[in-house]
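worker-3 :: picked Methionine synthase reductase
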Amino acid sequence: MCCESKRRFLLLYATQKGQAKAIAEEIWQQAGAHGFEADMHCISEMDKYNLETEKDPVVIVISTTGTGDPPDTARKFVKKIQDKTLPPDHFAHLQYGLLGLGDSEYMFFCNGGRTVDRRLQELGAQHFYDTGLADDCVGLELVVDPWIDGLWLALKEALQLQKEKEGMNNAVDVVSSSLSAALHAVHELNLSSEVQNLKLEDEGARDSDVLSQKLDDINLVAPARDTEPSLVHSVPPVSQSALNIPALPPEYIEVQFQDTQGEDPHLSSLISEGTTFEVPVTKAVQLTREDAIKTALLLELDIADTAFEYQPGDAFCVICPNDVSEVEELLHILGLSEKGDDFVCVKVKQGTKKKGASRPQHIPERSTLKFILIWCLEIRAIPKKAFLRALVECTSDAGEKRRLQELCSRQGASDYTRFIRDSNVCLLDLLHAFPSCKPSLSLLIEHLPKLQARSYSVSSSNLYQPGRLRFVFNVVEFPAGPSRPVSRKGVCTGWLAELVAPLLHPSKSTLDTKGESSSTEKISIFPRPNNAFHLPADPSVPFIMVGPGTGISPFIGFLQHRQKLREQHPDWEFGETWLFFGCRHEDRDYLFKQLRCFLENGTLTHLKVCFSRDPSTAEVAPPKYVQDVLRLCAKEVARVLLKDRGYFYVCGDKKHMADDVSDAIVDILSMEMEADKLEAMKILAMLREAKRYLQDVWS
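worker-3 :: tokens ->
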């Protein structure tokens, strides 16, 4: 190991999009100021640490991805510790503290962290510090900041007890029991629940890693008429407070412009998840009417000449670029408009104070500047506080400087949540709001995360349409607002809509002699199989599908697959199928009116639809939402789930639909079983555990 100090601890992180790594780096930076040395590694680098022989305390920061899975970087580690042959005292020597990151919008909140935590406990490891579960839905910092604050005392006590233990040659049992008692006395933080009730108090600049910024250090003149805070303006008490702001992250990237020419890397080099496939878009259909509130598109890809495989219910990822006009705008603000096509070499800065600094894996060592900004960096990412802290040093106007300090400070936490996080502010918005801020290119590479591929549910069956893959999406719109000067479309959905515009509205120049579009636009994709969201293995088992809006997408694949199976195996027994679909208006956004065909040929047994915004002249108003229709079919739903042991699938919006559907199922089970709500909730939990109540949801 590289750090042999008595005050050493092992710091491991498992990250999917960079959040856990950034938090681990914050812990690493603060460690020195508290007299500790953090031996930091990605959890996947198992050749650089060994938990089997680790004597010092271990701190683990781990995120959650997909439907409650550990991040990709933790897969090998999790597989290793899940080995059933490991004895229950395998990690009896290990003491650790774990910080899990998640989003309570999703069903399996912080399940990546919980999985590792639970397994380490099963193998005899002991907590030296309470587990923290941070919720991105309300702001990770609400748990992360106080968890890190309390970590140093816990480490000090753990290392002291370890030292005492090493100095004693006997009474091992006495020591271990005193260890347990002492640790319970030290830690009274309940960080894993009731995040909303946690309040941060200003305790002054207690630690040397926190800088105190006095009001009289700056020359800030705010208009007296502004009584409401905004992105660029604060009000008391924040505007009159001394601020606790994070330590300045050390610079570690150097960018050198080169005169040489060459070619940019292939897009496949950006993806570590496996094989990528470049496939043509063969068809595009707008499923909604022009006057619908949302625009839904169906795209068809030709995968016939590839090894791409999928099942109905699977997802796949699209590699997408940033908006070119936004990149041009960013280059203009940075003063680099003339250098976009120049090649740059990205290296680690010599003499950097950043421990274990390396060039980010998603940044090529050599490429054009535009390639980095278009394909590698998530320029729409919500800036983290560490980024804001770094931007302070690039800002010349005193008032703007102060406001950026407030937004990254402990005292400005609610302003950060309101005006940056909840407003989906990105770097461009900040640079417009704070025009004296002129960051360097290296700073952007250091702080902007990897541009993530976007995931979509498959809306077809390879059995029904061999060599074809279809998917459906809404074109995401972000309206202009106080913190966003212009409206924007989603990074991927906006790009796809623009890409297939010739297919949607073919002009004479894009039509071949047969009148068909000759457009051959290609996109790069890679598979992301879903382990559970598939049709029942036994075709005789009945199932219910709930998919309003574009949530119907995977169920089209289900029904196509079922139709083909019925044609190929007329002697098989097939269970009944239910589909609950809803949208705003029947004439504007009823995405798949051909569902009637599945009903007529017997593939679909029951189709229930509802339209939330259509007026009704009926004496009894029809149900507006899918959860209302489910309640009307309570007896049948309960029969399918309880008596017939069927499956229940939900796809679509988490916040405004999936939770309401879950509540409706609890009510139905309670009513039909004549049981109280708690008992019904237990039944639903059992259905989830048995993988018979399955969700594919997004927020």
